[in-house]
Design a protein that fits this description.
- By secondary structure, this protein is α+β, with helices and mostly antiparallel strands.
- The protein contains 1 helix and 3 strands, in the order E-E-E-H.
- It is elongated, with a radius of gyration of 16 Å.
């Protein structure tokens, strides 16, 4: 049996991206990338007790996907 270890191909990965709103609230984008769909956003995690609205999260996701895809 033989395995060609140099033939590996990256087909998907999880990434985290840190961000901050104009008023200083911090968040992390948990994103997924694959070769057939490019990037998708799994969740937005608000940090340090911050909270965001659904509209803010939609705006973050839209901005992220526009830049990444």
């Amino acid at each position: 049996m033989e395995i060609n270890y140099s033939s590996e191909v990256l087909t998907s990965a999880n990434y985290d991206y840190d961000g901050k709103t104009e008023d200083g609230r911090e968040f992390t984008i948990h994103a997924f990338w694959d070769t057939w769909d490019d990037y998708t956003v799994d969740t937005i995690e608000w940090l340090n007790g911050a909270e965001g609205t659904d509209e803010e999260e939609d705006e973050i996701i839209e901005m992220f996907l526009e830049w990444m895809n």
